[in-house]
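Example record

One chain of 328 residues, shown exactly as stored in the release files.
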Amino acid sequence: MNTAKMENSSSEIVFVLSGLNETKTTKQIYFAFALLAYIFTLFANVTLVLAVFFERILHEPMYIFLCNLCVNGIFGATGFYPKILIDLLSDSHVISYRACLTQIYMIYNYVFCEFVNLAVMAYDRYVAICKPLEYHSIMTPWKVGKLLLVIWLIPFCETSIGMIMTARLTLCGSRIDKLYCTNWEVVKLSCRDTTLNNLYGYILMFMHVFQAFLLILISYIHIIRTCLRSRVERSKFMETCLPHLITLMNFTLSFIFDVMYARYGSQGSLQSLRNILTVEYLVVPPLLNPLIYGLKLKQIRRSIWRRFQPKNCHAKIKPKISKNILAH
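Predicted structure tokens for this chain:
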């Protein structure tokens, strides 16, 4: 690491990303897999977003929040994939100071937005299952709009404050031991005291993990209690709540691992294994969310199936239906 002080000028500071140093011989294979994963992630999320947008029957709070989850997945994937694809094609893995902060902003905004969105989805499921008769009076379009604003506004404020705190630091190094820029990796390069940055990071992590587990746990205690009384409600739980729990657990555990490993993990372990474990929350949730929900929720599945079915199939079905009606 260079010990000379560097001025915080985007024209002078260039970070070296050392996460790909052990994958030089298999870069083409990684590039092919990464490109396919990015294309499929975009395709799956855009397909689900369009299905919700064009089908009026899907203009319900649950599907709107799911659509928002997919938009956020596209945002997070775009913060990660383009840079890693460029690095896999080149021999030098560098990123400018300004581009690094932009990537940090996109990734952290995606993370915080995901947590808030999952908490809102848990609240929506709680109202739908525990208070079905009051659902539409509680989840009004005005309230849904306010919740969507909260989903994006809180992460925007949290991330912006973090970026301001990081941008004020004077740096003494340029080596980032990861595939992509993260806030803590940049903070570690500072010549100044970083106690405030460290404290703010812990507060944010505690707030969102606390939010994800405590608020969602309370919602699900009420949901499960209600579902035990009725077979219909149990079926509704398996269809709408199980995908939500899978998404929540996968995202939360992988993110906590990445944060804890960055701060306390050994730097001498296998780089390839560390790379896989630290990109899991950026790769898997945006890819699996539309698949899990798209396959599990009947309305979305039917809507997507109709979109991709040939038009003449619909023409063949209609005469049969009319004949059956006439027969009866």
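Notes: The first strand starts at residue 14 and ends at 17.
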